[in-house]
Write a structure and sequence with these properties.
Length: 285
């Protein structure tokens, strides 16, 4: 039976350590979170990030902008935050309304404040193995993995999903950890066969229970990044969050598995706090 990789407990530990480090070093890290429009899921994420920042001793500013904000107005705000000495991390909550260009917004950020690790400079530095802001969700996946496998060198890792925010950076980090990495996506034939060869499986697809229990290699470590809200089969009026992996069916085969919710999700926020702390520490502020 798989060990449950508890992201809630690990993220709490990380945030508590950060809070004491911030106090010890006398730092005043500042995080600016920008939300454009009223996407309900984004509103929840932004609230959670602000709360986590407060609990960690990080000053958080939330900038709520209307959905019809122009590209120029958003870029002006980014420019002001780039110059603000109290702000060490800037995060623009995605997705942006369709009229705004997310790549232009990310590129306008000071890479030294890009705590999400999405700026092309940080993406390039990650692929070169140079110091950079490591994107939060992939960083969280690696921290959970290392809880049960401190040295994953030589393991066969499969990453399903090739997005810029999860799949590609997770694959980079697994490669840096000396895994033999395969990336799968919607055009991959025989995904089940790829899964059955994987010692480490990271699923970042966004399709509920897509990865079947009998695709899991015995003793594999399963990191489930997917989060999808589905109707609750027991109560039609309720919904629940599920991952990309059929958790019940995978648990008897895997050596360790992340639950959804309570696995990768809370780690993303803890790693955002960590990146903001590191940014403040780098400037001695
Ligand atoms: P995304 O940009 O939509 O990418 C999904 C990836 O899955 C794509 O590369 C796609 O392949 C692949 N895919 C889709 N259908 C597939 C199939 N049938 N077989 C194999 N691969 C398939 O998604 P994302 O932003 O990476 O997010 C993925 C999931 O993680 C979502 O559920 C999201 O909510 C969740 N997420 C969680 C956190 C967290 O903090 N826990 C953070 C970010 C995302 P193609 O490239 O070929 O289309």
């Amino acid at each position: 039976m798989a060990q449950i990789l508890d992201g809630v407990a690990l993220s709490r530990r990380i945030r508590a350590e950060l809070a004491s480090q911030i106090t010890k070093e006398g730092l005043s890290p500042g995080l600016a979170v920008v939300l454009v429009g009223e996407n309900p899921a984004s509103q929840v994420y932004v609230r959670n990030k602000a709360r986590a920042a407060e609990e960690t001793g990080i000053l958080s500013q939330t900038h709520l902008l209307p959905a019809d904000t122009t590209q120029t107005a958003l870029l002006d705000l980014i420019a002001r935050l780039n110059e603000d000495p109290k702000i060490h991390g800037i995060l623009v909550q995605m997705p942006l309304p369709p009229a705004l260009d997310p790549q232009a917004v990310i590129a306008a950020m000071d890479p030294a404040k890009d705590v999400d690790g999405f700026h092309p400079v940080n993406v390039g530095r990650l692929s070169l193995g140079l110091p950079c802001f490591v994107p939060c969700t992939p960083q969280g996946c690696m921290l959970l993995l290392r809880e049960v496998l401190p040295d994953p060198a030589g393991k066969r890792a499969l990453v399903i999903g090739r997005s810029n925010i999860v799949g590609k950076p997770v694959a980079q980090l697994l490669l840096q950890a000396d895994c033999t990495v395969t990336m799968a996506h919607s055009r991959t034939p025989d995904l089940a066969g790829e899964c059955r060869r994987a010692d480490i499986l990271v699923a970042a697809i966004g399709r509920p229970h897509f990865v079947q229990g009998d695709w899991i290699k015995d003793g594999a470590i399963v990191i489930d990044v997917g989060i999808t809200r589905v109707a609750d089969s027991a109560d039609a009026e309720k919904t629940r969050l599920v991952g990309d992996v059929d958790y019940e069916a995978a648990t008897p085969r895997a050596a360790a598995i992340t639950p959804v919710p309570g696995g990768v999700g809370p780690m993303t926020i803890a790693c955002l706090m960590r990146n903001t702390f590191l940014s403040a520490q780098a400037r001695g502020l």
